[in-house]
Amino acid sequence: MSDWKDAFLRTRVIPPHSQTARQAPGSPQALQLVFRQIDGLHVKQSESPASLQYQLRVTLFDSGHQHFFGRTWKSDSHSVSGMQGQSGRVFFNEVVYFHTSLCLSSVVAVVELVSLSTRADGSQDAVGSGFGLLQLFTGRADTIISQGEGRLSLFNGTPRALLHPTLKDPLRMNAALSVMEGTQLLYSIQPHPALTPIMHLLPPNILVSGHDSIPGVMSSTDTGTADALRKPRLLKSFLCVLDGLRVALFPSVEVFESNLLQLLNRDCQNTNRGVEGRSVIVQERRLQVGVHNGWGWVEKPHVLVLEREAEGSGAARARGASASGSFRQTSTDKLSDGLSLRGSVELKMMRDVAFSIVFQLQYVFSCPLAGDGQMTSTAVPRAAFMQCVRWCAWSLFSDPEGPGENVSLHLQGGALPNPWGAMVYSASTQQTDSGKCVIKFKFSSSVEGASCSTALNVSHRETSAPKKLLSASQEERILEPTASTLQSPRGPALFLSQLVATSRYPTMSHTVGSPWQQQLPSLLSPSPMASAHQLSHVERPVAGSIVHLELSVQEREGNRSEEEDELQELTFTPVHAPVITLGTHASGSSRSTSRRSLAQLFSSGFPQILDNQNQVAEVLDPSEPVNFNPQREEADPLQANTLILQFLAFTRVPQAGVNSDWPSTVHFTFQLYRFPPVTTERLKLLDPERNSKLKSSSDYPCVLSVINKDGTFSSGCPGLQLHYRVDPQFLKPGERGWFLRYLALHSLQIDVWDSESLMLIGSAAVELKHMLRQGRAAVQVNHELEVITTEYLQDANFASRHDNKHSATPAINVYTTVKGILHLRLGNVGGSATNSQSSLALPPLLSHVVQPSDAPQGFAGGGVPALTVLQLNASNARRARRLPEIDSELARLLQSTMREVGGAALHQQAEAKEVRQRKIDRMAAVRQHEEQKATPPFQDSSNVTRHRAERVQHSRDLRVIEAYRERCKAQEITNMLSQAITTKHTLYATLGTAEFFEFVLKNPFNVPQTVTIECDDPELSVIVKTEEWRYFKELTKTLTPLEEEMFLLKESTLTPQVYLRPKESVHVPFKYQTFICGHTFPLQDTKGLKTSRSPQMAQKHLSNTINAKSIKVLFRGEDKKPLAICQVDVEPTPHVVDQTFRFYQPELTFLKKAIRLPAAWDDTADGSATLHVRCSDPNVICHTTNLTPGEPQDVYLKVPGSPSPQIRKFFITIFTDPWLASPAQIWQVYVHYLQRMDLSCVCGTLSWHSLVLHGTQAIRRVKCYTSHPLELQVDPGEVFALPAQGVQDVCVGLRALRPGSRFFYLNVVDVDTRQLIASWLLCITCRQPVISKAFEISVPVDGGKGSNKKISFTNPYSSSRAFNLRTDRPDLLQFKEEQFQVRGPKANSCSINRSQTLSGGLAV
Question: Rounded to two decimals, what is the model's pTM?
Fold first, then answer.
């Protein structure tokens, strides 16, 4: 009670003016005020700067009604820096938070500067040094908050001057108040939507700091930050129930109400409000019950109606007997009537000592309005009024032992402060402790399996390490029903590439002027999620958890005691449960490789990373943070960067269902920056030498070696090394900053594949921030990355308990598992650039404005040789060419020999070669003519016939050419003339990014023109909305004129039109944006992998890009003739992929999936931003819903099916800005379609099933691979020939070792081309076997010795039989002989060995 009372008395506030409260818009606004420093403070000669202390005090003020309200906030005391007689400076750096619904321009914040000095007696003296008025709201609907930074001038005097009548007019304030010359307060104000979730705990108009303790909000010591309100977090809440609530009034209800009515009637008679006699009567008795945290009501109090119990009734007797026998505190033991409540009250509490339950007893009275006494009481109109008679507050945590089950509280009255701020009735006689009014009830909480006294213990906030409300086991089991593993929705669409970049990473945009406009942390610390293994535990619920209520039943049974009778929570799996996007995992690993293994690994002779001076690159520690300075990177003389990726080794992790030597060959797929996606060569895992001591351990790194085309291993250096050259010739203008930002904030996702089975082993992610050189010549860093994947298993115990309950949903436990460790080395070698000017950013004024040139461009006259045409920088200069060279159809129509002559001249570029060839042809023709003259006509008749035929063909060709020229003349002349008014502009377009530019359109005529803008490409459009135009101009920093309502849209075609005055020029805004990308169905093959041992240089070719094209925009006048032409050449650019998802789905079925964005997306927006999504595949339905701030955002997908084994690939672009300028993230989604088959078996029993394999168009040599070869056998198991267009039966032998539902995969691979022929998704349902015997073995935990036991077994058959032994936990249980022969009927014993290393709580 004392904690609540102290908080209540300390946080009392002055309410705002009633008229101002009625004028409030309604919706509250949360604000953040930052007071940085005061400059120009004058320090007197008599004052010592060292002894001066200053303090800021802020109070809300209503200038319209000259009314201070709220509570004054006081900052800490700060000293002044400066010399005597000079201007000083005081650094405050204080942050103030508050929320208010009084968003009016008359509401301001009064900031007072107070100087503090110490008196002789040790007390502190505060003297006002000046004040200022901070404007909080503008009053405009579009921008309510006056956000931004500013300087506030201070006035001399005290804020009390604002109450003077002459200062009621704001215009006379400057005349009446004097300004402190040179003294200004540097401040900033901005909205703070993060305060919205705690508005119910913090009353409005109260200014608080981040270190203030607000009941119900985690303090700064709990959150780990100095400012607890920057991102406030709520405490855990629980439900409590008040049952059997009863109020006992002293000495009885009848006497209490009689005295009360007598006083009220006397008061009514004195004020002439009532009639003579007992006119005031009791109409209703109410009880208000609510939760109060000392600052305000947590929720609106409950209003309950009490019923009066007659004295001596059966109910009163029963209640009185129960009260006298059960309650610890009673007012009297005799039976008396009281006020009781039917039913119970449910309240939500938080684990804070300041939280209390407050009760208020209210009486509703009615009195007649007439006072002449001539009418009866029933006919007189009556007025009702309410009066508070008693109240009390009860803290659950006041008793160190916790609250009891039965509670009795004393009600109090009188003129004491209360949460309602109302006057409370007080009896005229002094009451003793034994004669006070009492409220009694039975208290219980929603905590299961624990009593109230043990469950509701909480320590005070003053302690350094506050205890939790519940114990650790109770809190995990009751208040936090979260699975201990990563949860995911059940169903066949099951696989997900886990390691992806988080939403805090931006996407490269060519529209934004500078990549550094967005906030960038200077200290890049390691990722908070240390590894993928840690992701499977609920340490970071925001980063990796699926919204399921699935609980591990086995863990609950193992942790609860035998006496507990705990209700089990049933599994609830929502339809299309959302997949939460996971965060980036750090490069470190929770598994550490031993020094012996590292020595063995790095002695294998991997190539070193050297700089330009052949010096070894500096080695960085991946666990240390990176100090990133963008200016240092920009000033680096080595502008070229060579990114090096070295895949060194792969460490196998023992897995259930596979052999110890799996995998034997691997390859990797990834995409770095906007380089094309890479599928590496096949790499062999080389085991250490047989005589090595490492062979005894299964956790050793296997060096990777490239496999040649003939199947042999490469003789060069081990590992695989890839080079990526990033220089100014590769980067587009202004892109260098985006590339550096990509390295600083992004992670590289690497998918690891089994090269034999073409199955995905898992995914790993590595942060690229250590590749920033920061002025160094070269850097390198070694990483050990966990390769993780998701696996699915049904809870067998859950399924067995609900076998007869068809309504129960099977529980699918989805968890992450580590498949291996990838040893990767990253490096960056700096180099000099030959052309560094190409990477400089273009001026914003010129980069987005297309200005047609007025100067004539072309050829002045004379000969036009071929080389001169190539050198001319003119678009309207054309060199004459032969017609067969222009039109291929015309060349096919020509029949004379000139076709060959023209064809031979196609490859001649220089004029000298053409002249020489022409002279040779003329000489040959002269010689042929002379020979014909020397020969008699009758001796060469064949030549005459041949020449006559050639002349006929030549004449025909000339007529064809003449007809062609007449047909194309008008079109060619028009095209040539249009080049004079054509302006070319090149765009480097990226998927989803809007490219903005303005075209300067001029009216060349002396009369006005209405110009129609025509464009046949829907991806290039005119920006007709003024708000959108203004947004892009601010985004690109384009300082050109902007006009309101500039365009007119035709009603039929919606074609924009613009009106131009004579000789007038206007800027026409354009936006090019495409969401369509090439969609193919790639197969998983490694046929085209490179096998060269030289360093592979990444080439600048296009992949994952949009299509290149040329778009013409025609500006037609009123006569339908073009005034200008803008030709936009779109150059495609690969985009950066932020996240990759992989789903496995049965063929020809729809995939329905919801991807949930993490909570970090709420921090990037101001709470009012709307999420937009677009998909690159028009056949995929992708959308999202607009929710209130704070609600989780889901992206819904519906993907059509395809036949197996095709893979559908598409991209999803996510936007947070209203005009979809630049995507915040780009997701790459793969949907693998498989043939589905449901199989059922008994645990440990081998069952065979048949699959039908269809052949392709050609005969192939194929082999079948399974994801769990120890549990799933295939016949034929070796390579076999699959006939063309044939059918092959594949037998599958299933022996599952674990009960429940699981998912296996079967791939049929072409061994020659490494292509995937067919793929199956096998949904396994394994039932538990009939247990004939049960044994119990007790061994020490963690490091104890194993145990050897013998089990007797009798052959139940009459003949001799061979028996095999199997176990579902081979890691814990081993057999001396896995197969033995027993003659029948005869007993035999089998020996088992229990593993030495055992974790507590496991059972076999």
Answer: 0.54
